[in-house]
Every structure is written in structure tokens, then in C-alpha cells.
Amino acid sequence: MPTPVVSLRPCVAADQGFLRALYASTRAEEMAHTPWDTAAIETFLTQQFQAQHDYYQAHFADGQFLVIEAAGQPIGRAYLLWTDSHLQIIDTALLPDWQGQGIGSQLMTEWLVQADAQGLSAGLHVTAHNPALRLYQRNGFQEVGENGVYLKMRRPALATATPA
Fold first, then answer.
1. What residues does 92 pair with on adjacent strands?
2. Measured between alpha carbons, how far is 133 from 141 in angstroms, rounded to an integer?
3. Of 97, 91, 104, whose CA–CA distance to 64 is shortest?
4. Where are the domains positioned within the chain?
5. Residue 161: pLDDT band by 50, 70, 90 thresholds?
6. First to last CA, the chain
7. CATH number corresponding to 7-155
8. pLDDT tens for residues 95-119?
9. Which of 30, 36, 87, 137 is the most buried (most CB within 10 A)?
10. What is the predicted pLDDT for the residue at 131?
């Protein structure tokens, strides 16, 4: 099956409902193991989404906050920070129905080709149980640290930027 064609566009205020639902989908398995009722889970996820959103906005003010779309419909998010020397992949997520179709691999390849063309290293954080860990390892990311929750991974610059 071919990888679906996707596009990226900047997040806008109208995307908040979708982004909140996407965030909830990333925590569904975890929430299934709590004794909480639906209302408590919804309250918790809304608070956690807002805390994460506020953190990203405050700590990555120059970041690109993008919605991933297929056929004009939002299916995920990609938050990136490009600097003069580094690409930080802040966060990526796809709705469950869109996972496992090569979309993450396709986007990662595009970003790393661009980073390599500019001579940039790349970094990200991931939980050890996240299936995307294998994707990152295949793309040259290596663990360089951990904080008890997340593995810190880094990929060195693979090319030197060509002078303009």
C-alpha cells in the first residue's frame, strides 16, 4: 500500500479541538488502565493538553507548529524548531487510523534531508515504549541521555551546509 500523500500547514486557533482530540488519542491506552470515569478522564486530558500546549508555546516560541493533513483533513501534528545549527523535533503525533502507513517515515526523511542540506544536527525526546523509537534509530538517532520518562536522542549533522 503506498504512503498517503500528506501536507503540512501552520496550526490556527480553530485547530485546538482537533489537537486536543489528537492528544487524547496518544494517551488512550494509558487512560484505559485508570479507575477514573469518563468525565474525570476528559478533565484530566484537557488539563494535560493545555499544560503541554502552553509549555511548547512558551519554550519553543520560534517553533513551527504544524497540522499534518491528508486530503484536506487533519490527521496529525508536527512541532519543529529549526535553528542555525540544529533541528529539534519537538513533537509529532498521528491519529491511530493513520499510524503504520509510512507517513512518519516520509516526514522524518524530508526533515532530515533538509537538515543535512543545512549541516544541522537533529534531536528529539521519546518514551522507551513508543513504537516510533525504531523509526528514530533507523534514521541514525542515538540515545544521549534520559530523564526517567524520556530518552534524549540526537543525530549528528551528516553533511556540511553548502555556502550560498
1. 78
2. 9
3. 91
4. 7-155
5. low
6. 39
7. 3.40.630.30
8. 999 999 999 999 999 999 999 999 9
9. 87
10. 87
